[in-house]
Amino acid sequence: TNLAHHQVELEILQAMESRHPGRMALGMEMFGRSAQATLDQWVAGKMDEKSFLREWYANWTADYDYYRPILEFARERKIPVLALNATDEQVRVLSEKGLEGLSEEIREGIPDLDPNDPYHRKAMEAVFGGHVPSHPSGGRDKKAFERFYQTMLLWDETMAQGVVDYLRSPAGQKRQLVVMTGGFHVGYGFGVPRRVFRRLPVSYAIVLPQTAEVAEGR
Question: Fewer CB within 10 A of the end CB, N or C, for the chain?
């Protein structure tokens, strides 16, 4: 919910489209992969904004106005928009039951989740600790953290797999891809970038806008 950050996103997409006209694509965390058909209709000009808004709020909670200029620019320039994120059902079932409790049907739609990066785990422990109160025993709830971490891995790995699937597809050949996602999914090079690179060693850059905080009275 930072307008300045979204302005940076728009300016990057506009500049990349100017540099590589007709060769850009945009991937978004804000849409579960089941929303791809809707995004295709939007970019093709076959869906009005009122109908599109219903899909937006079915996928994301932030006000659409933050993202409107980005999505309107993609529509105007016919830039493919990719729905990268896991579905609500996958997230819900994983957070409730963990990997061991998933049905075969749900499990088949989930990419490999690599939990073996100790630095990423430590970073996510810090994030988790800032959002969840201490356990009555004085520590953090380890089971709750594991569910949280598995869910974060689900988001990161699903988005990474979506990026790789597109870049390897005929539609993605010779295209440049801009991915818009939250800072926790790219911070310190963890998350989506590293998990894309594990699958497909491509060059990339991370842009993580920061907003300076000035103490009151200064």
Answer: C
